Amino acid sequence: MRRANETLVGAAVLGAIVLLVVGSVWLSQRRFGRDDQVLEARFRTIGGLNAGSPVLMRGVRIGRVEGVSLGAQNWVNVAIRLRGDVRLPERPVAIISSTTLFGDWGVDIQNADQPDDPEVRRQLAEAEAVGRDRLPGATLPDIGQLTAQAGRIAGDIATLSARVQDAFDTSSARRLRLAFADLSALSRRLSRIAAGQETTLAVIGDNLEIGTASLERTAAALERTVRRADSASSGDQLRRIFSNTDSVAQDLRTIANNLRSFSAAAATQQEAMVRILANLDSSVQRMQEGRGTLGMLSRDSSLYVEALGVVREMRRFLAQCRENPRSCFSFSVF
Question: How would you class 78 by CB atoms within 10 Å of its CB: exposed for 0-12, middle for 13-18, buried for 19 or more?
Fold first, then answer.
């Protein structure tokens, strides 16, 4: 009896030890008879991720987080243990996100071109720029942060609605009613204006009809002109017109050649004309300034007075000579 009790106690202890070992292996998620692959990813922050968190790819669990450590430049290095039969994408990246509403976090393995969020792409580019020895990683905001952001947005909307409610008080409603009344009066006035312009529109329609008739007559006259030109082109009239046109063109070419020769001659005499005009300008300036004989004559009237006096004396002398020539001329012989 005692031996049977000892056997039962030993079997219970052995079963407990086996159960403990199996439970430890299950909790550690170790697999025997198959090699695992261990990778590391680089993150700026990991949120609530810790050792033992699941690693997913396309929603399927392929491994777990082995460990978390702080690296150089405050980068967080996360060791990931994956099954040996898992084939990763060509450009694998690690995205940390909240998997449940109870604060559970996990790592999602994706291809580098899958994330569409600009912030995620920025984090991946920053992690990849440090080095390619580890997978680039990014972290999505958790539910708490999204809820807080939603709460702030809701608060802003409430504040905005309160301000809108304050703005649209009774006075605002009265102003809106007055504005609608003004719009109604304006519409009635426009309708009256349109009714008054009905006669004008009818006159415009009549004028359009008259203009259309004039265009028809013009088109008919143009058609007759074209027919006459067609009939004229069958005879010698066009030939004579073209010959006259050639002669006129030749005369125009002759005139153009003469104009070119005249322009060339004028260009050769341009320097002489410039010198003459410069000398004339300097002479006029000297006269205006009172320099030289002409300048003194133009500014001093005494010479004019003296010349006038001389002319008067000459007139008196000539008159005296006519009256008494002997007094003006004397002749002596020997």
Answer: buried
